[in-house]
Design brief:
single chain; alpha/beta; Rossmann fold; eleven-stranded mixed beta sheet; three-stranded mixed beta sheet; 16 strands; globular
Length: 494
């Protein structure tokens, strides 16, 4: 193993950083991009520090609790959580080639339903991107109540504003890490992908990135501010506080996380819009809102008007997204038809018709199987295609079709399964309780990782962008196909 004789020291506008180098990669961990956040206030520039700051420790993350899944170890996917005792968590990890100069920059925005997740999740270690000649930066941002609850008296979309603040920090400091601020690709998965899809259309993000990779996310998971106020009032009632910033700022993180668990239950609060749709289908109560300066309108509507057309987009989904939520607890095989209908009815006005379209009542099709397939398309796959069609710039669409052997082979091409392939971190997520199972193919990880890195480097991909049709590249098969129309297309707003 090659290690530099002297640890590297870089100079940022806020002070000196000491990192570490090994095998041609230098890392700078726990780098502050803002001051510790003041609850329900905007991010502020980092106060300069004296001397040389140690950047070999990852530091804290936003407060959250890990929700365990039967049969699976989720910590490699989302990190280990935090009790919020250390509030200095607006931090970034940076991995760079040892001799980087004018290198492409990739900024990672983690997922986790806007309530969990961290830059430090083992699956999203950026070392391999640095070995591919890319400066890779992973960031934390505010979550849950602090980040995505539109509390009266506080700025809306504080989590998105943190991401915007971090992207401005990247513009100011990319060259110090050997990166090119004019060649920035922002990429993320799940909630991180949804945040990116939203920011593609945000007037506040103009000029902050050139390309976007949106993994299992889209711009339809946004909520009208007035609808989101129901959640504000519900939480305030649970916490016995005033439904405003003065009330919520008094709530400690442990109590807030207890409240999050209570409102996550299906009957806790009705967040359906006037048409009877709940865009997140109960996966998370906390999502961005539109109607402010960050998102003046719904992202898809903004795309159709040409907003974000100067940004190249790679967007896609996994073939069996909802298996992650239904397979490990055994729900897919056991749920009765009446309960399947009821669960979907909490988010969709035509749940009976939808389930019938996905085979409910057909020979050999269990209710849970119909529900899982329907929700995979309703929540992820079809809205991804809608987003791609609405974008007026260059757009490429992929599908992750490799099936994991985990959960006795039933987990399949579930939500998040592309992550260890994108980052080439298969070892972090394999084994008897790993999402990728026992023998994930390293050659597929090599190929998928190279697709992502080449897109960031040059904006090129091994298939044609969307035109009048929508070719979808199958990552495992290595070829494109024009998909048949999904049944979900008839049951979602245009």
């Amino acid at each position: 193993m090659h290690v530099k004789e002297q640890p590297p020291v870089l100079e940022l506008e806020t002070g000196l950083l000491r990192g570490a180098c090994a095998d041609g990669v230098c890392s700078f961990l726990g780098v502050p991009y803002a001051d510790p956040p003041q609850r329900f206030e905007l991010s502020a520039p980092r106060t300069p520090w004296q001397g040389i700051r140690d950047a070999t420790q990852r530091g804290p993350c936003a407060p959250y609790r890990v929700r365990e899944l039967p049969q699976l170890d989720v910590i490699p996917l989302v990190g280990s959580g935090s009790d919020g005792s250390d509030g200095d968590y607006l931090l970034a990890n940076v991995w760079m080639p040892e001799d980087a100069e004018d290198a492409p920059v990739m900024v990672w925005v983690h997922g986790g339903g806007f309530v969990v997740g961290s830059k430090d999740a083992p699956v999203s270690d950026g070392t391999q991107f640095a070995k591919s000649g890319v400066v890779c930066i992973a960031i934390n941002y505010r979550l849950g109540i602090d980040g995505f609850l539109p509390v009266p008296g506080a700025p809306t979309n504080l989590g998105l504003r943190d991401i915007l603040f971090a992207l401005r920090w990247v513009q100011e400091n990319a060259r110090a890490f050997g990166g090119n601020p004019g060649n920035v690709t922002v990429f993320g998965e799940s909630a991180g992908a949804m945040a990116i899809a939203d920011l593609v259309t945000s007037p506040l993000a103009k000029g902050l990135f050139r390309r976007a990779i949106i993994q299992s996310g889209h711009g339809a998971m946004v909520r009208d501010i007035d609808v989101a106020q129901r959640l504000v009032r519900k939480l305030a009632k649970l916490l016995r506080i005033a439904p405003d910033a003065d009330g919520f700022v008094k709530v400690d993180h442990a109590t807030a996380m207890d409240a999050l668990e209570k409102v996550s239950k299906p009957m806790a609060v009705d967040l359906r819009d006037a048409d009877g749709f709940e865009p997140v289908y109960g996966i998370s109560r906390f999502i961005p809102v539109y109607g402010d300066d960050v998102l003046p309108e719904k992202p898809v509507e903004a795309l159709r008007k040409g907003t974000g057309k100067d940004i190249d987009i790679l967007i896609g989904s996994n073939a069996e997204e909802m298996n992650l939520y239904f397979v490990p607890p055994g729900v897919r095989q056991k749920i009765p038809g009446l309960l399947a209908w009821w669960l979907l009815s909490r988010s969709h006005p035509w749940s009976r018709k939808v389930l019938k379209a996905y085979g409910l009542g057909g020979k050999g099709i269990r209710p849970g199987e119909a529900l899982t397939r329907a929700m995979s398309d309703l929540v992820f796959r079809w809205p991804v295609r809608q987003f791609a069609k609405a974008h007026r710039g260059r757009t490429w669409v992929y599908e992750m079709d490799w099936r994991s052997s985990a959960c006795e082979g039933e987990l399949g091409a579930c939500h998040g399964i592309e992550l260890p392939f994108v980052f080439k971190t298969l070892e972090s997520i394999r084994g008897p309780r790993g999402i990728a199972g026992e023998m994930p193919p390293s050659e597929l990880a090599d190929r998928i990782h190279d697709i992502w890195a080449n897109f960031a480097r040059e904006g090129t991909l091994p298939w044609q962008p969307a035109g009048d049709d929508l070719p979808v590249y199958q990552l495992a098969a290595g070829q494109t196909r024009v998909e048949p129309r999904m049944p979900a297309a008839d049951y979602l707003p245009d």
